[in-house]
Design goal:
261 residues; alpha/beta; 10 strands; binds D-glutamic acid
């Protein structure tokens, strides 16, 4: 029960998931890896993604984790099955199924999915939604410029031009949007300024629900009454990681360390 949960993404985006996990499961010990040396994941091949994530999973297993969370849509869409086959000894979950589950509860009919190139090309969101209801209209849009501006910290001064280019033509057209990349909730307020009062679905809340259900079901919840230990690593530059995430992630007394995989 005291064993940690491993959580990873290509960079700071998965911190949006880590934040919710920390809030909802405060007793759990968590290890986060931002694989910044390979960021962005969205323009990588399946082979590259599998190679990077295999190393991350091996590290987590060496740390005796009880569960691994892919806080990343790109790897959830492309290499989740392969990782689950390669590491059957540990439960590995991605974010897409739970995000679709959350979306379907809303009863929307016309959704825009924005995500990285590799996520959109895998068509997982469209497939899963239309398997459930073929009458839901699912529009897919690659938005590859967003992760680099978020990772660099440029998003802090506003990225209206980029977002307008991507989203203006969907104004008053869709009733919902899936933020199909864990980096995108970081610029949610800027997206809302363009698309207004529609339904917004992202991965953070839904995946946490799945993690806690799994832990409860298997009696793996950490029942100790102490606040869990959270370790945060980046495979890239520590100062840059802190700079780009300090606008939205509350570090308190947490620190970020470099990790070589
Ligand atoms: N945040 C990740 C995702 O959810 C990775 C984005 C990237 O590195 O391109 O897809």
């Amino acid at each position: 029960m005291k064993r940690p949960i491993g959580v990873f993404d290509s960079g700071v985006g998965g911190l949006t998931v880590l934040e919710t996990l920390k809030e909802q499961l405060p007793n759990e010990n968590l290890i986060y890896i931002g694989d910044n040396i390979h960021s962005p994941y969205g323009d990588k091949t399946k082979e590259q993604l599998l190679a990077y994530t295999t190393e991350i999973c091996k590290y987590f297993i060496s740390q005796n984790v009880k569960m691994i969370v892919l806080a990343c849509n790109t790897t959830s869409a492309n290499v989740l099955d392969e990782l689950q086959k390669q590491f059957p000894q540990v439960r590995i979950v991605g974010v897409i199924h739970s995000t679709v589950h959350e979306f379907l509860k809303k009863g929307c009919h016309h959704v825009l999915v924005i995500a990285t190139h590799a996520t959109i090309q895998a068509h997982k969101y469209k497939q899963l939604i239309n398997d459930y209801d073929k009458y839901i209209c699912v529009e897919e849009l690659e938005t590859p410029h967003l992760v680099p501006v978020i990772e660099s910290g440029e998003y802090k001064t506003g990225i209206a031009d980029i977002l307008n280019d991507y989203l203006l033509s969907y104004q008053n057209k869709v009733d919902s949007i899936i933020l199909g990349c864990t980096h995108y909730p970081i610029v949610l307020d800027q997206i809302q300024k363009i698309l207004g009062d529609i339904c917004y679905v992202s991965s953070s809340a839904s995946i946490c629900h799945e993690v806690s259900s799994y832990l409860k079901l298997h009696c793996l919840l950490n029942t100790q009454q102490t606040i869990g230990n959270v370790r945060i690593y980046t495979t890239g530059n520590v100062d840059e990681f802190i700079y780009s995430s300090s606008g939205f992630f509350d570090y308190n007394d947490l620190k970020v360390e470099f990790l070589k995989l």
